[in-house]
Design goal:
The protein is built from two helices and six strands; from the N terminus they run E-H-E-E-H-E-E-E. It is an alpha+beta fold. The mean pLDDT is 86.
Length: 113
Protein backbone atom coordinates (compact mmCIF):
# COMPACT_ATOMS: atom_id res chain seq x y z
CA UNK A 1 0.00 0.00 0.00
CA UNK A 2 1.28 3.41 -0.93
CA UNK A 3 1.95 5.86 1.91
CA UNK A 4 -0.70 8.52 2.36
CA UNK A 5 -0.37 12.13 3.48
CA UNK A 6 -3.04 14.28 5.12
CA UNK A 7 -3.15 17.79 3.64
CA UNK A 8 -5.11 20.35 5.66
CA UNK A 9 -5.91 24.06 5.43
CA UNK A 10 -6.54 23.79 1.70
CA UNK A 11 -8.17 26.73 -0.02
CA UNK A 12 -11.72 25.78 -1.00
CA UNK A 13 -11.03 26.46 -4.68
CA UNK A 14 -7.95 24.20 -4.87
CA UNK A 15 -8.09 21.35 -7.38
CA UNK A 16 -6.75 17.82 -7.26
CA UNK A 17 -4.62 18.56 -10.33
CA UNK A 18 -2.98 21.52 -8.55
CA UNK A 19 -2.19 19.30 -5.56
CA UNK A 20 -0.81 16.56 -7.78
CA UNK A 21 1.43 19.08 -9.56
CA UNK A 22 2.65 20.64 -6.29
CA UNK A 23 3.45 17.34 -4.57
CA UNK A 24 5.16 15.91 -7.64
CA UNK A 25 8.07 18.13 -6.61
CA UNK A 26 8.76 15.57 -3.87
CA UNK A 27 8.32 12.42 -6.00
CA UNK A 28 5.72 10.34 -7.79
CA UNK A 29 2.14 11.12 -6.80
CA UNK A 30 -0.05 8.03 -7.10
CA UNK A 31 -3.29 9.83 -6.21
CA UNK A 32 -4.51 13.24 -5.07
CA UNK A 33 -7.94 13.52 -3.46
CA UNK A 34 -9.78 16.53 -2.03
CA UNK A 35 -12.55 15.59 0.40
CA UNK A 36 -15.89 17.12 -0.51
CA UNK A 37 -19.15 17.58 1.35
CA UNK A 38 -21.56 14.90 0.13
CA UNK A 39 -24.55 17.26 0.09
CA UNK A 40 -23.05 20.37 -1.53
CA UNK A 41 -20.05 18.93 -3.39
CA UNK A 42 -17.87 21.74 -2.00
CA UNK A 43 -14.40 21.12 -0.64
CA UNK A 44 -14.10 20.53 3.10
CA UNK A 45 -10.63 22.14 3.08
CA UNK A 46 -8.56 18.98 3.39
CA UNK A 47 -7.44 16.05 1.30
CA UNK A 48 -5.00 13.19 0.90
CA UNK A 49 -1.98 12.55 -1.29
CA UNK A 50 -0.66 9.05 -1.95
CA UNK A 51 3.02 8.95 -2.78
CA UNK A 52 4.73 5.95 -4.38
CA UNK A 53 7.25 5.36 -1.56
CA UNK A 54 7.55 6.05 2.15
CA UNK A 55 10.73 8.07 1.53
CA UNK A 56 8.89 10.34 -0.93
CA UNK A 57 5.97 10.73 1.48
CA UNK A 58 8.29 11.81 4.30
CA UNK A 59 10.11 14.19 1.94
CA UNK A 60 6.79 15.71 0.81
CA UNK A 61 5.62 16.13 4.42
CA UNK A 62 8.78 18.02 5.34
CA UNK A 63 8.77 20.07 2.11
CA UNK A 64 5.14 21.14 2.16
CA UNK A 65 4.13 21.41 5.81
CA UNK A 66 3.74 25.17 6.28
CA UNK A 67 4.10 25.78 2.53
CA UNK A 68 2.19 28.82 1.22
CA UNK A 69 -0.44 27.61 -1.26
CA UNK A 70 -3.01 30.14 -2.55
CA UNK A 71 -2.18 32.39 0.45
CA UNK A 72 -2.79 29.59 2.99
CA UNK A 73 -0.22 27.61 4.95
CA UNK A 74 -0.69 23.91 4.30
CA UNK A 75 -0.74 21.42 7.16
CA UNK A 76 0.89 18.23 5.89
CA UNK A 77 1.51 15.07 7.90
CA UNK A 78 1.57 11.33 7.41
CA UNK A 79 -2.04 10.16 7.46
CA UNK A 80 -3.21 7.97 10.32
CA UNK A 81 -5.43 4.96 9.67
CA UNK A 82 -9.11 5.80 9.75
CA UNK A 83 -10.69 5.06 13.13
CA UNK A 84 -13.56 2.63 13.14
CA UNK A 85 -16.73 4.37 14.26
CA UNK A 86 -19.85 2.54 15.31
CA UNK A 87 -22.53 2.66 12.65
CA UNK A 88 -26.10 3.12 13.60
CA UNK A 89 -28.52 5.78 14.67
CA UNK A 90 -26.06 8.66 14.87
CA UNK A 91 -26.37 9.06 18.62
CA UNK A 92 -30.11 9.61 18.66
CA UNK A 93 -30.71 6.72 21.06
CA UNK A 94 -32.96 4.91 18.60
CA UNK A 95 -35.48 7.73 18.44
CA UNK A 96 -37.14 8.96 15.32
CA UNK A 97 -34.74 11.47 13.73
CA UNK A 98 -37.57 13.83 12.81
CA UNK A 99 -37.77 15.03 16.38
CA UNK A 100 -40.86 15.26 18.48
CA UNK A 101 -41.56 12.84 21.26
CA UNK A 102 -41.13 14.80 24.42
CA UNK A 103 -41.68 13.67 27.96
CA UNK A 104 -44.31 11.06 28.53
CA UNK A 105 -44.76 10.22 24.87
CA UNK A 106 -44.21 6.53 24.06
CA UNK A 107 -41.07 5.83 22.09
CA UNK A 108 -41.49 6.50 18.38
CA UNK A 109 -44.70 8.53 18.82
CA UNK A 110 -44.87 12.27 18.58
CA UNK A 111 -47.05 14.60 20.54
CA UNK A 112 -49.58 16.46 18.49
CA UNK A 113 -50.62 19.92 19.52
Amino acid sequence: MEPKLYVGNLPYDATEDELRQLFSGAGTVAEATIIKDRDTGRSKGFGFIQMSTQVEAEKAASMFNGHDFHNRQLKVDLARPREERPRGDGGMGGRDRRGGGGRGAPRGERRRF
